[in-house]
Automatic annotation (TrEMBL), chain A:
Location within or outside the cell: Membrane
Topological category with respect to the lipid bilayer: Multi-pass membrane protein
Designated name of the protein: Uncharacterized protein
A Gene Ontology cellular-component term: Golgi cisterna membrane
Gene Ontology BP terms: intracellular pH reduction
Transmembrane segments: 12-38, 50-73, 85-102, 122-144, 263-285, 318-343, 355-377, 397-418
Residues covered by the Golgi pH regulator conserved domain: 117-182
Record-annotated Abscisic acid G-protein coupled receptor-like domain positions: 252-421
Species annotation: Chrysolophus pictus
MF (Gene Ontology): voltage-gated monoatomic anion channel activity
Length: 430, 230
């Protein structure tokens, strides 16, 4: 937490508490999954803990966090300072309304359940969370190999950087000289205007218009030029920063660590391509896998290689390891992305709102990853999740995830391709 | 008008402390209506009368370079910013009175700017830590400005002002505390305006009248050393 708030002070203690609580409960959920696999604790007590955990998390996600978000947004707008609570409640009710409406177009409502049951809430939270997860993983799946592999790095020499810096400084000098002219003109007008600036009736005004019209026209022209030059200087600055960053990456890739990451990048890219491929197949052939990868993998090995395996024993351990890895990497990836995002957009005014938004996103993300993890676990462990979460249409969620994942991956490929193409063209034009 | 001589002053500080508003106030005597984030560097020009009111009065342009960014940026951004630190004649350090972190970051800002511009005689040997002696020997005039004074409630004002007084002493610099949305603080004749004018005079003097400045500088140092001995 300290890392997130290193440069900006988030004064409100409440915000910090809420964030930590959300995070803590989400992690507890994952711990419960692991306990499930390992067989720790009594079965009924596990069930109880699951229920308790879910209730608390849903309470926080659906009731408390949105309310506080509304409260802080309203307190940022100076106009509505008086009736903060009232407006916060209004915002919260709007949120609940939209939240409810969200459920309508999806086939998740079954007539058996009442209005305020856990299943309803989870289904909606699940939809939002799954969408988010799919977007993030789609983008991550494409961005990861792009960042890691040095194949994509453009070649940047010191001369390029120096040339660009020189252009930047020249632009700044031009801006300065123009601003000097404006300042001098203003000063002389001010000094002259002191004498003339008593509009003695109609004629005085006409005289002041004709004497200064030449000066002011010139000034507005210069001002426009200055604005254009400032825009140019901003662009040049961003390009220079980009070049410096690329140069740093090139140097980093020459070290051992860089080479190691490069190697990983190749692996990752194969994995990502495979995932995209699987998603396409799932959608095209309209099939949702019944058995999890681990058991299938072991079955295939046993059948093809004819090795005598104690399937149950090994499947338990392997699935435990796999699930553990998935959990850890997804938590780590999420936190890193959140930290970067937070640095990029935070300011001292809105840091409270942003922290709460992040807590909300994180909570939804974790709830839905529990939903989806069910897919990767062997049959006997699935039962408890199915029990706890009630009768949700799990298949729907998996399909929805695949669709959004595919869409997000394809659009991020397109986006990165365009960005990559644009940059070398800009440098050619220099 | 004849070509006026040029002087470069950097305006440094964390994101959102009010550097752009401050620069606008200093140069146009008007409050900035719609402050937005500064990307890269924005420059503005202030016409300053050196030694106003004396027969030696001469007009100079002072360029205020307002560099945006945060002190914890990646090395690539820092090296990009470093291109603006060439040949500077003075530094204005801006911090937010309501945000303690921004005052603490001023040390790192000043080190970043001063390490870049190393004069052949006054080499700053540093490993990034702050050392008061360096600022005593520092030949580039500094000024510390605290903004958002209006947002501090009356009860806390004294405590905040003592803290900033210590800060300014550490930098061996003058300090001004004001609110960038109110031009009253820099009205002609107020003590703030006098301090500002003195600072700009010091910058110009160091740039153009080195001998005169040097003798004054050495005299003040000798005075301070004598004080410390007692």
């Amino acid at each position: 937490m300290r890392k997130l708030f290193k440069d900006y002070e988030v004064r409100q203690y409440v915000v910090q508490v809420i964030f930590s609580v959300t995070f803590a409960f989400s992690c507890t959920m994952f711990e419960l999954i692991i306990f499930e696999i390992l067989g720790v604790l009594n079965s009924s007590s596990r069930y109880f803990h699951w229920k308790l955990n879910l209730c608390v998390i849903l309470l926080i996600l659906v009731f408390m966090v949105p309310f506080y978000i509304g409260y802080f947004v309203v307190s940022n707008i100076r106009l509505l300072h008086r009736q903060k609570l009232l407006f916060a409640c209004v915002l919260w009710l709007t949120f609940m309304y939209f939240f409810w409406k969200l459920g309508d177009p999806f086939p998740i409502l079954s007539p058996k359940h009442g209005i305020l049951s856990i299943e309803q809430l989870i289904s909606r939270v699940g939809v939002i969370g799954v969408t988010l997860m799919a977007l993030l993983s789609g983008f991550g799946a494409v961005n990861c190999p792009y960042t890691y592999m040095s194949y994509f790095l453009r070649n940047v020499t010191d001369a390029d950087i120096l040339a660009l810096e020189r252009r930047l400084l020249q632009t700044m000098d031009m801006i300065i000289s123009k601003k000097k002219r404006i300042a001098v003109a203003h000063r002389t007008m001010f000094q002259r205007g002191e004498v003339h600036n008593k509009p003695t009736g109609f004629w005085g005004m006409i005289k002041s218009v004709t004497t200064s019209v030449a000066g002011s026209e010139n000034l507005s022209l210069i001002q426009q030029e200055v604005d254009a030059l400032e825009e140019l200087s901003r662009q040049l600055f961003l390009e220079t920063a980009d070049l410096h960053a690329t140069k740093e990456r090139i140097e980093y890739s020459k070290t051992f660590q860089g080479k190691y990451f490069n190697f990983l990048g190749y692996f990752f890219s194969i994995y990502c391509v495979w995932k995209i491929f699987m998603a396409t197949i799932n959608i095209v052939f309209d099939r949702v896998g019944k058995t999890d990868p681990v058991t299938r993998g072991i079955e295939i090995t046993v059948n093809y290689l004819g090795i005598q395996f104690d399937v149950k024993f090994w499947s338990q351990h392997i699935s435990f390891i796999l699930v553990g890895i998935i959990i850890v990497t997804s938590i780590r990836g999420l936190l890193i992305t959140l930290t970067k995002f937070f640095y990029a957009i935070s300011s001292s005014k809105s840091s409270n709102v942003i922290v709460l938004l992040l807590a909300q996103i994180m909570g939804m993300y974790f709830v839905s990853s529990v939903l989806l993890i069910r897919m990767s676990m062997p049959l006997e462990y699935r039962t408890i999740i199915t029990e706890v979460l009630g009768e949700l249409q799990f298949n729907f969620y998996h399909r929805w995830f695949d669709v959004i994942f595919l869409v997000s991956a394809l659009s991020s490929i397109l986006f990165l391709y365009l960005a990559h193409k644009q940059a070398p063209e800009k440098h050619m034009a220099l | 008008m004849a070509a006026l001589d040029r002087v470069k002053v950097l305006v440094l500080g964390d994101s959102g402390v009010g550097k752009s508003s401050l620069v606008h106030l200093l140069c146009h005597n008007q409050v900035l209506g719609n402050p937005s984030w500064t990307v890269g560097c924005s420059v503005d020009v202030r016409i300053h009368d050196y030694k106003e009111g004396t027969p030696e009065e001469k007009t100079y342009y002072i360029e205020l370079w307002d560099v945006g960014g945060s002190v914890g940026s990646a090395t690539s951004v820092k090296s990009t910013r470093a291109v603006f630190y060439n040949s500077l004649n003075g530094i204005i350090l801006v911090h937010d009175l309501t945000n303690k972190k921004s005052s603490q970051n001023l040390y790192r800002w000043s080190l970043e700017a001063l390490n870049r511009d190393v004069a052949p005689t006054g080499v700053l040997v540093t490993n990034g830590d702050y050392d008061r002696e360096q600022f005593a020997d520092n030949q580039i005039p500094l000024l510390v400005i605290g903004t958002k004074l209006d947002q501090i409630p009356e009860t806390k004002r004294n405590e905040v002002l003592t803290r900033t007084a210590f800060l300014a002493e550490d930098f061996n610099a003058e300090e001004i505390n004001l609110d960038c949305t109110n031009p009253r603080y820099l009205a002609a004749g107020s003590s703030n305006a006098v301090k500002l004018s003195r600072f700009f005079d010091k910058v110009i003097e160091k740039r153009y009248f080195f001998k005169r400045w040097q003798s004054r500088f050495l005299a003040s140092r000798k005075e301070r050393d004598l004080e410390e001995e007692h």
